[in-house]
């Protein structure tokens, strides 16, 4: 049996990979994918804790996170389309009209 | 199956009915102003219902106590203001959609759920409902590049911060085995695990993510860009609503879940509060765009309100709540005048557009003067009373030096607020602007200024209301 620690470490690693991806990528689609990676790392840790504790609340939270992540992706992609229309780029470097 | 007690959730149910009926009515009504009227009337009815619907329901997941009622009052007044001031502004930009009001009300429902959350699941869902609606609202002017840029920036950083919050929640769940705020607090107090490293990591994640939402430095980077790029009516809406909602969960989570760790988080929050006041007040000095200046000022005000949480007492919490109510009136007041100027052709957001306003519009300039005095914190305005109670709370908690620091930054803020006043009263105007105070925006401005003065002269009933509302 795989112990809880492994899952926690796995989720931490994936979470920080996602965080690194978000901070280093310049393409908005890749940044969205990195956020999904972070959310799914959270899901892994919720399911692992939930199984370990024997409590169902964690499973419910995971379903809700998946649902919210889907709506978040929908809004994110809609904003990307808006950005392509107005600025003709999907790179965050194009977002430079507003500064200071 | 037992039916849960639905009385405490009646305001949220009424708001949901309002928003669904808005979606349907939008199909039949071409004059979108009527939708604004409908939103305002509906929200007024919900304000009345808020005071009668108290209790705990859904097995402690939803708590309608006096703490949440106070915040719900703030959110509903805020949505009424936003609905009124949007009409003319968005019409001029051909963006007055019915969906705009749907999203406004949805965001308000999210805030109300956040204020009442007794469980971290509910807290997260309320937060996302609020945040997702606000992202879209920031980008509602579809043809405007600035609006789009603001929405994309807000979305990316907001989604990032909610992912961080979620990891904090999952750590808390793993350590304590519960998602109920009260149970987690009891577990931490009972087991005495205040030195648990994972718990401290979870605490840091919570502070980071809440810091994003209240725009505290060093997590404030999105604020000026988003407040500048978003439509001004939405800037007015989201500089009060989401911030007050974030303070509501900040207070509830930190006072119930982490009271045993208050030594740790007070030490983390003190540098954040000082940095927030410093960044907000000092960078605001250099701004020439009034929306951007008000964005930095809103960062600074978040720093002041954080003092109430640092006090870690009921007194501090009620001072923070009182300050959010006062901030609602003075901030919306400032944005109403910005919107009134925006609505005039040829007038932009630059602070130089305020030159000589007192010659052409003496009454409007005088009202702006009172609001600027209030934002600075000069008696007899409400801003002074709000700051007074906050500083008293923080002194009583034993951080007298922090109050001195806050007063110094407050004095610095006088420079950029009073610069607007100077432009209005002591400079010649470049361009004649004629503002009308007899339309809805003008009347709203007069009401707001009246409230600012009324709370400033007679703060007792509002302070009592906030004092009753402690956790």
How would you concisely characterize the structure shown here?
The complex is a heterodimer of chains A (100) and B (471). Chain A has 3 helices and no strands. Chain A has 100 residues and is an all-alpha fold.
From the structure above, extract its key features.
heterodimer, A: 100 residues, mainly alpha, Helix Hairpins, 78% helix, elongated, B: 471 residues, two-stranded antiparallel ribbon
* Number of distinct beta strands of chain A: 0
**Class per helix and strand makeup of chain A:** mainly alpha
Task: Tell me the total number of β-strands of chain B.
Answer: 2
CATH third-tier fold name of chain A: Helix Hairpins
Structure description:
- The complex is a heterodimer of chains A (100) and B (471).
- With 100 residues, chain A is mainly α.
- Chain A has one domain (4-94): Helix Hairpins.
- Chain A has 3 helices and no strands.
- In chain A, helix 2 runs antiparallel to helix 3 (57-87).
- Chain A starts with a helix and ends in a 13-residue tail after the last helix.
- The model of chain A has no long low-confidence stretch (mean pLDDT 92).
- Chain B has 471 residues and is mostly helical.
- Chain B has a domain at 263-471.
- Chain B contains 19 helices and 2 strands.
- In chain B, strands 1-2 form a two-stranded antiparallel ribbon.
- In chain B, strand 1 and strand 2 form a beta hairpin.
- In chain B, helix 5 (120-138) packs antiparallel against helix 10.
- The two termini of chain B are 32 Å apart.
- The mean pLDDT of chain B is 91.
- Classes of the chains: A mainly alpha (100), B mainly alpha (471).
- The A-B interface holds A 8, 11, 15, 18, 22, 28, 31-32, 35, 38-39, 41-42, 45-46, 48-50, 52-53, 55, 57-58, 60-61, 64-65, 68, 71-72, 75-76, 78-80, 82-83, 85-87, 92, 95, 97-100 and B 120-121, 124-125, 128, 132, 135-136, 139, 142-146, 148-153, 155-156, 159-160, 163-164, 166-167, 169-171, 173-174, 177-179, 224-225, 228-229, 283, 286, 292.
């Amino acid at each position: 049996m795989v112990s809880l620690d492994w899952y926690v470490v796995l989720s931490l690693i994936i979470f920080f990979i996602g965080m690194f991806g978000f901070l280093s990528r310049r393409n908005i689609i890749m940044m969205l994918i990195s956020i999904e990676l972070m959310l799914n790392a959270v899901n892994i840790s919720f399911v692992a804790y939930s199984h370990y504790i024997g409590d169902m609340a964690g499973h419910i939270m995971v379903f809700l996170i998946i649902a919210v992540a889907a709506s978040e992706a929908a809004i994110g992609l809609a904003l990307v389309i808006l950005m392509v229309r107005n600025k003709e780029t999907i790179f965050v470097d194009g977002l430079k009209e507003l500064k200071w | 199956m037992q039916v849960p007690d639905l009385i405490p959730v009646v305001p949220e149910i009424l708001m949901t009915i309002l928003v669904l009926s808005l979606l349907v009515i939008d199909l039949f009504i071409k004059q979108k102003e009527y939708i604004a009227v409908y939103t305002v009337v509906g929200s007024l009815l919900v304000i009345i219902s808020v005071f009668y619907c108290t209790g705990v329901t859904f097995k402690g997941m939803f708590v309608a106590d006096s703490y949440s009622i106070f915040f719900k009052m703030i959110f509903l007044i805020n949505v009424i203001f936003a609905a009124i001031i949007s009409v003319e502004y968005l019409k001029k930009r051909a963006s007055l959609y019915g969906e705009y009001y749907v999203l406004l009300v949805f965001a308000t429902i999210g805030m109300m759920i956040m204020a009442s959350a007794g469980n971290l699941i509910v807290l997260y869902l309320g937060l996302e409902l609020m945040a997702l609606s606000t992202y879209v609202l920031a980008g509602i002017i579809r043809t405007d590049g600035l609006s789009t840029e603001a929405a994309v920036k807000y979305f990316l950083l907001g989604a990032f911060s909610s992912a961080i919050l979620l990891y904090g929640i999952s750590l808390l769940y793993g350590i304590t085995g519960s998602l109920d705020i009260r149970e987690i607090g009891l577990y931490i107090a009972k087991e005495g695990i205040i030195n648990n490293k994972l718990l401290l990591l979870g605490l840091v994640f919570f502070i980071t993510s809440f810091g994003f939402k209240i725009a505290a430095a060093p997590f404030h980077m999105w604020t000026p860009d988003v407040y500048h790029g978003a439509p001004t009516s939405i800037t007015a809406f989201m500089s009060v609503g989401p911030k007050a909602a974030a303070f509501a969960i900040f207070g509830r989570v930190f006072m119930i879940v982490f009271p045993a760790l208050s030594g740790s988080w007070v030490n983390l929050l003190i540098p954040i509060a000082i940095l927030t006041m410093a960044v907000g007040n000092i960078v605001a000095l250099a701004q020439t765009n009034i929306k951007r200046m008000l964005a930095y000022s809103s960062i600074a005000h978040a720093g002041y309100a954080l003092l109430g949480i640092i006090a870690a007492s009921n007194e501090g919490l009620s001072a923070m709540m009182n300050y959010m109510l006062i901030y609602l009136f003075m901030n919306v007041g400032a944005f109403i005048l910005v919107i009134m100027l925006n609505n005039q052709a040829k007038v932009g957001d630059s602070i130089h557009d305020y030159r000589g306003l007192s010659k052409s519009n003496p009454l409007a300039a005088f009202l702006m003067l009172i609001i600027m005095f209030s934002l600075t914190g000069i008696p007899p305005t409400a801003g002074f009373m709000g700051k007074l109670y906050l500083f008293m709370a923080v002194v009583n908690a034993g951080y007298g030096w922090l109050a001195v620091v806050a007063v110094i930054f407050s004095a610095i803020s006088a420079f950029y607020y009073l610069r607007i006043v100077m432009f209005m009263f002591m400079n010649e105007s470049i361009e004649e602007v004629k503002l009308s105070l007899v339309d809805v925006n003008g009347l709203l401005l007069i009401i707001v200024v009246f409230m600012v003065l009324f709370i400033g002269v007679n703060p007792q009933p509002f302070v009592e209301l906030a004092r009753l509302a402690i956790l």
